[in-house]
Amino acid sequence: MNKPYLKGSLRPSAFHIQRRRGRARVGIERGELSGNLRILAGGFIAFCLLHVLNNSYTTVVALIKEELSLSYTMSGALMSAYFTGYTIGQIPWGTLADRHGPRRVMAASILGTASATVFFGMSQSFWQILLTRFLSGLLGAGVFVPGVKLISAWFSPGSRGTALGVMSIGGSIGLVIASWLTPYTSLSVGWRGAMTASGVIGILSSAVILLSLRDRRVEPQPHVRSANVSEVIRTRSFWALAWIQMVRLGSNYAFIAWLPLILTEELGLGLVAAGAVFALYNLTGMISNPLGGIASDRFGEKEVLAVSFAVLCVATYLFARASSTLMINATVLLIGWFINFVRSPNFAILPKLYGVDNAGRISGVQNTFASLGALVLPLFLGFLKDTTDSYWSGWLILSGVLLSVSFVSLLITVPDGIDKRGSN
User: Fold this and answer.
1) Residue 222 resides in a domain
2) What is the total count of domains within the chain?
3) Which residue range is the domain that position 376 belongs to?
4) For residue 252, is pLDDT > 50?
5) What is the pLDDT of residue 130?
6) With 70 as the cut, is the pLDDT of residue 74 above it?
7) Which domain CATH number covers 115?
8) pLDDT tens digits for 78-118?
9) Model pTM?
10) What is the Cα–Cα distance from 345 to 351, expressed in whole angstroms?
11) Any idea which of 137-151, 188-202, 287-301, 349-363 has the lowest mean pLDDT?
């Protein structure tokens, strides 16, 4: 006997059709991931190498600071110099990726930043080491933005967040390698030998990236017209994303730059022990990066961003007020989790808003704002440390900034015709 249905409910046949479509979509997404393993592997290696090359120095910054007699502001300037170059390089590298494809661009970027890392290990003064950090940023800017273009070309909207998350695991692993291997190696060959060895490995590995990746042309998306930058910058979503990007990367690198010094100077940990705790911060990214992508594919990017930055606000406040090693470790893990959780949603939404053909160029513009945040925040926190003799006042300010991002995330508007959860 047929049962009556409530008004507005799905008929059994419609329900089953919808469920079959959902299962088919999941199958397509899984097929894309398994069918493009070579692309993911090449991008994974590039992300891993970039993070090893550009973050190895942070775990031995205490040794560099002592040898070169650096102030806290000068130590923060090393990170800011990197992001000055990184900021300048964003749009040119993104444009090159749109015109010539991400394959050669990403390989050339790794080759360049690896060469700069070798010169970093040879530097004899603050100004020389500052210049090599600038060059590392300028030459290393050609990995992530072309990587977004790469993923946009090979994966559909419903699986881009997941694919970006999987590829970004390489970055987290690179940070873990830098956290453990560089301090350990520096005990036997010094920080100069450790940095030089990292650069040589990067130079050799750039060939692997060139051989692994493939470029792919895509047809224009029916729901997204070609994006003109002059038009894009007049939209509310563009500036909302710009602020989110500034705070996301700025707060991430503020932690990367200063956490090792906090652990050694405030908590009295040895170099290797501090590197081990710092590795926990980076290990969380291996899990949270892909999960953030999966969550954004399922629930929508701006929803994931709003919730995650609210949690980051609370965690950063608790970190600033923490008085025990247990509380600091717990909040570091929480911050490490969510700062990586929001990475993929930030970039997976761009092809939806502006089209795959423009993904490299618009990602470059957006990542320029991210680089500005990474340039300013580490330097700002170093300045506060020098002037107030306190790390914690800066983290309290950062907590409020993170809260603002949670609200700004809600201002992003995805165009009609695009499924907010990922599919067309």
Assistant:
1) no
2) 1
3) 36-215+227-411
4) yes
5) 92
6) yes
7) 1.20.1250.20
8) 877 887 888 888 788 888 888 888 899 999 999 999 999 99
9) 0.65
10) 11
11) 349-363
The token pair at 170 is 């390489």
Is 90 a member of any domain? yes
- How far is residue 174's CA from residue 326's CA, in Å, rounded to a whole number? 25
Question: Rounded to whole angstroms, how far apart are CA atoms 149 and 152?
Answer: 5
